[in-house]
Design goal:
The chain has about 200 residues and is an alpha+beta fold. The chain is about 30% helix and about 30% strand.
Length: about 200
């Protein structure tokens, strides 16, 4: 092998090590974000616990089939698992016109999606503005998901499985959202809140 061939081989090896190292960090971060032990991830993915541990410690280069099984167990795309992180600092700004908006069925609750697109598969957050009487009905998210509603203005109530709690400005409600739930703006004044949804936050019985 000539010098050029050795250089190319060295670059490929370096790139593979960098990808493997980032993969391990990503797997570990997602596993901990979903509150999964190594044993639980092994059971859900069909990948041996020892192999997952080696991947997280960057001691092995997993096959594509192994990466695919882990991505399925963690409910993320394989592209996201394989994506390398940019270590350079960044400062990102989104204009009001670029911020996606959601509207409740009654047209009285507006949600500005202010969360980062790269976290949407496990973490979502919204700026909520509601007219008096506005109601947002949501279907169940995946098992173990938790939602937080922090009221900034006005008064809201949340109903989950027939249980109702009320929060006023400065108060926060935290509740399971892995079942149908409703958020209502009550009282005679408009309301505003921040809503954060952590998908598959924990296995909750």
């Amino acid at each position: 092998m000539g010098v050029e061939g050795r250089d190319r081989s060295s670059k490929i090896e370096s790139g593979a090590q960098q990808l493997s190292g980032q993969l391990g960090k990503t797997i570990q971060r997602l596993r901990k974000a979903y509150n999964l032990s190594l044993s639980e991830l092994a059971e859900q993915s069909g990948v041996a616990k020892s192999i997952i541990s080696q991947i997280e410690r960057n001691e092995t280069n997993p096959t594509l089939a192994t990466i695919w099984r882990l991505s399925q167990a963690l409910d993320v795309s394989i592209e996201r698992v394989l994506a390398t992180a940019d270590d350079e600092p960044f400062l990102e700004r989104s204009s009001k016109a670029d911020t996606p908006m959601l509207l409740s069925d009654d047209g009285k609750v507006r949600l500005a999606i202010i969360g980062w697109i790269k976290t949407v598969e496990w973490l979502q957050w919204y700026d909520v503005v509601a007219e008096p009487g506005g109601q947002l009905d949501s279907d169940a998210h995946q098992r173990g998901s938790v939602e937080t509603l922090s009221v900034l203005e006005g008064e809201f109530e949340v109903e989950v499985s027939g249980v109702v709690q009320i929060a006023r400005a400065g108060e926060t409600l935290r509740y399971r959202c892995d079942r149908a739930h409703s958020v209502r703006c009550i009282g005679g004044a408009p309301g505003r809140a921040t809503m954060v949804c952590i998908l598959k936050a924990a296995v909750m019985d």
